[in-house]
Design goal:
Two copies of one chain form a homodimer. By secondary structure, chain A is mainly alpha-helical. Chain A is 77% helix and 0% strand. Chain A is elongated, with a radius of gyration of 19 Å. Chain A binds chain B through residues 28-33, 108, 110-111, 115-123, 128, 131-132, 135, 156, 159-160, 162-168, 170-171, 173-175, 180, 183-184, 187, and chain B through 28-33, 108, 110-111, 115-123, 128, 131-132, 135, 156, 159-160, 162-168, 170-171, 173-175, 180, 183-184, 187. Chain A binds a DNA duplex through residues 3, 7, 11, 13-14, 35-37, 45-52, 56-57.
Amino acid sequence: MTAAAEGRTRRRPARERLLAAAARRFYADGIAATGIDAVIAEAGVAKMSLYNNFASKDALVAEYLAVRHEEWLELYRRRAAGAAGARERVLAVFDAYLDHAALAYDRGFRGCGLLNAAAELPAGHDGRAAVRAHKEQVEAILLEHLDALGTGDAARLARHLSLLLEGGMMRAGLEGTPAVLEQARAIATELLDAA
Amino acid sequence: MTAAAEGRTRRRPARERLLAAAARRFYADGIAATGIDAVIAEAGVAKMSLYNNFASKDALVAEYLAVRHEEWLELYRRRAAGAAGARERVLAVFDAYLDHAALAYDRGFRGCGLLNAAAELPAGHDGRAAVRAHKEQVEAILLEHLDALGTGDAARLARHLSLLLEGGMMRAGLEGTPAVLEQARAIATELLDAA
DNA sequence: ACAGAACTAGGCCGATCGGTCTAGTTGGCT
DNA sequence: AGCCAACTAGACCGATCGGCCTAGTTCTGT
């Protein structure tokens, strides 16, 4: 009924609707706590549409993680495009995190989706490696710009900023507001000024 | 059979064995992914022994979180007891985290159990508030010693160190080794020297 | 106009979920 | 010796899990 009622505009393919629904539910309730039925109900899609597009729930989860990674990169690219120098591009990484927080905020900000996912994945799961790779790439981006800046021991500063970033994201997620994350950014600018 | 065979030494009450088993499985596999049956099997205990000691799985989870908090406090107190001045007591917080990492390491280090739990708990869950309170207490401890140290803007430095701590714990958990956490501590000492 | 792909609802599967209940055994205290 | 509390194994409950299948409908490209 409801699906038929919105039938006119509902032309977005099932795969996209599934990924969007999964993103919302996985983020808000956790991956393990979200059943396949909850995802298809929120997507307004038949169960077989899920299994025609994804081999399993695990495959959907893997895609969810990949999309989150891509999403953050896009956020960062946008910020980096409007950044003047290397210093601004370092801060663009913080701004991308802030943008991400603002996106999710109206439905309850709960921190970094990738970090949260990794935290609930069992020890050997591939998803944990994917999240680790993501975080290492973020630090690599920091390092790249820090190198261009020519400060002393760029690697150490990159790690320092990365820890501020991840710690800030985690704490902000717990608090439910990006305030701590903004403080992390402020501290980062301070460190950049000192270097 | 197996239970009767080890009957001689098996005198630890069911409640303790359940909490110990839950700690192991919840930490290694995640809370939502760990069924009640897995917990009682690992504890070597009957199902009714669980429900005679805990009202529900959720109550067991709440107790699990409380024990984790208490456990860290104990680790910290031990480190603080052997610390000379205020500066050493700040670093004792980092050492307590490292001790925690070393404890869990042989069974696969996966970061802070409380942070991981919060990450997989749904938006409004009480457990998230408990974890937030824990992390705020950790920062309060940092602040207390920083105040005694009389450095400028102790609150800001306390937050800075807290972010290093949580970011380090998260990244270390992803990597599977406490190396990043040790770097966080090194950076912290640097900051203390500069202040 | 028509073929084929995408999608639909919904029944079905075996397994497992959290939780309850019964009936019986064990161990420590007096 | 006798009692009570802690504990046991395991059957059982309804609900939900991830996943599969069928039959029919709607959309789209040619």
